[in-house]
Amino acid sequence: MNITVADSLSLDSVDYDPIAHLNLLFSHPSTVSSVSSVSATIQKHKDELSKSITSLETAQAYGPDSSLERMQSAQAELASLFQRIESVRSRALQTERDITTMTADIKRLDGTKRNLTLSMTALKRLQMLTTAYEQLRGLARTRQYRECAGLLQAVLQLMRHFNSYRSIEQIAVLSRNVSELQRELLEQVCEDFEIAFAKGEVGARRAVLVEACLVMDALGDHAKTRLVTWYVNTELREYRQVFRGNDEAGSLDNIGRRYAWFKRTLKTHEEEHAVIFPPHWRVNETLAMSFCDGTREDFKGILEKSMRRPDGPKLDVNLLLSCLQETMDFEQGLERRFANEPRASIDTLSSADDRAQNFNGSISAAFEPYLSLWVESQDRALASMIPKYKQQPLIPADEEFSPQAVIPSAIELFHFYKVTLSQCAKLSTGERLLDLTKTLAKYLDEYAQQVLLGFLQRGGTQGPPIEDIILVLNTADFWHTNTDQLEEFIKKRIDPDMTSRVDLSDQSDAFMGAAGASVMALVAKVELECESAWREMRNTNWSRMESVSDHSSYVSELLKHVNSKAEEILPLVVKQQYARTFCDNLVDHLANAYITNVVQCKPVCETGAEQMLLDKYVLTKSLENLMSFHTASSSTQPPASFVKHVNTSMTRMDPLLKTLQVRPSPPEGLVQAYLIHIADRSDTNFRKILELKGVRRADQAHLLELFAIHREGPAAAGGKLVQSSPLLTPLLNSTSGGLGSTTAAGGSGLAAGLAAGGLQTRFDAASLGERLLTAARDSAERAGVGAATGEGVTMNENLRNIGNFFRRDIGGLGARFGRRDITPTNNSRPDV
């Protein structure tokens, strides 16, 4: 069929639809024969369009109004524009030169006028300076100090204008005369003061002395300082003679007499002499500070002499503290007195300066080096408290157990720390406060190690009661929180340059470690109950099992013990984060114990492995509900993160069980299963799997040959075989049947470390400390906390490593779940 004109025009339509057009052209099967003619017509139409496009492009390129011609025209116009700009610039430069020539004479006239004005001003000032100098000499001879003060300021101000003219002889002579007059006035005023005080004529000559101080003020700071220094020395001369030249009067026993003497002297000054000196001189403050400086040096000598006695130091700590307290009271009295003095007008220069004197520590600084004696006395007091705390019962006989209670000794020790730190902060905020901090840190370590960990080691083979473990956990958490608060308390009071040296993080970690040890002791309580179930599992004949049931009988027994102990323990754990930590570690422990007992159940047939895998599934689903026993868990659904943790821990045994499910015949199937699930190259591990399956030694050689061949193939486990499986290597190499260090397979380092010490078979509280050391080393190696191995490792370091492990691996017990404080039932929780 042929394409109509309307059809051809439809090709130019904006919304052209080729499908609709084709359906129109070939609306009936009989029209298919016209495909060739339609194609030829379309091709013809295409050729016509191509010719039209070519014609238009040619016309556009070579026509009279082409783009090339327009570009050439624009370039010509641009060149013309640049020429005009250059012409304008040349004319502007020429105009500038013409204007400069025209104004040169005007500039010379302006310079001449300015120099003439400066010369007339200088001559006028020189005339004023000469006149003022002559008048000042006359007033100085007649001791008219008030007029001298005003005129002296004018002379000195005028003289400053001629500093640059001193090369002129007349100006130089005048400058020397003014300086000589200043010196004469200074000596004359000092002589007047000395005579008035020596003859006791201060009251009679008070008016002259007041005006003389105005002259000293005009002479400058050096003159004022000389006069004030002379006055202070005069007032304190008697004090120095009485208390420095007499051993009895100057001893520490008579420290109160020193302060009483100065209070009388200060009262005399304020009643008789203060009116003489200008208020902004603050002579009374200078007098007080000079007294403090001298007294401090006296005390330094007395204290040093007491410590160097031939018959040994004779310095009583109680006398030292009494003198120090009296000194600090005196300093605080001076501070309050001078801090409240009225200031000068805000229009004066001196009022813009802050009061320079600070009396806190001005005398008591002499006692600070000897506060180490007091720090030592606190050390002895704490040393006597720790053994007493170790012997005290966890709960007083007249009190009942409460899940929120802490050990009473913790409250007592905290109050002791708070009072001691507050007292030391009043006495010293420097090295002694830092020394006391180190002492307190030492006994925090001992409290965590000897008291808290000591309680966990009681109870013989059964371990301490659950209530005792809960009290230790609460106390460790209490001190973990308050150790951080103590650190902030000290940092706010110690000198700023020592703030960085205050660090109680190790002690905080030690208490976190004690809390972790308490959680693991609770886990061990559950483990004791599970031993009979694990024994039943090991006694089952897994090599002759013919069918798979819902779950084995030992599973019901195991879950019964786990749930009953969890239901007993979790309601007693107050904080959600510790309950979660307990559940996490319990799950890890059960997973590790399950793998260990699988190894001890050899040989295991394929049906037995399938039954174990089903048992594992039943255990996993039941363990997901552990958190429901905690009273703080308001939701009926277990936390998603906990469910994930349970599945992660329990699925670690899947590669082993899935490998055991594969029959040894055909042999290639077992080898491939091992390479897929275990995915390592270890001949030893493969041989252990064969032994676990009960494969005869005669049949193992062929399987080992196939294993050696297939493990080198590129298809083996995707070519990503490891040298030795992190699960099987420690597991199958353990000769004791224990779990060993299965932490590398993803389990809890702490649980594995305790299991390595024998917790999965029998819990012995007497050796818990040693197991905690092992746990700390294992967790440190895995989490990168630090090297906690070697014979020289202390229990404190391991407790800190456990604390760091809980921070990083369990989420910090505070950072992961938030921090809540445990409040004692019979005592309100003390706050720093």
What does this structure look like?
There is one protein chain. By secondary structure, the chain is mainly alpha-helical. It is about 65% helix and about 0% strand. The chain has 28 helices and no strands. It has helices spanning about 5-10, 20-25, 35-60, 65-140, 145-160, 170-200, 205-220, 220-245, 255-275, 285-305, 315-340, 370-390, 410-425, 430-455, 465-495, 505-540, 555-570, 575-600, 605-625, 640-650, 655-660, 665-675, 685-695, 695-710, 730, 750-755, 770-785, 795-810. It starts with a helix and ends in a 23-residue tail after the last helix. The relative contact order is 0.05.
Short description:
The chain is mainly α and 832 residues long.
* CA-based shape: flat
Tell me roughly what share of residues is in helical segments.
55-70%
Summarize model confidence as the mean pLDDT. 79
Q: How many angstroms separate the termini?
A: 102 Å
Low-confidence parts: 1-9, 343-356, 734-770, 772-793, 808-832
How would a crystallographer describe the biggest sheet?
none
The Cα radius of gyration reads 49 Å
Please write the string of helix (H) and strand (E) elements: HHHHHHHHHHHHHHHHHHHHHHHHHHHH
**Helix/sheet category:** mainly alpha
Number of DSSP helical runs = 28
According to DSSP, the number of beta strands is 0
- Strand % is under 5%
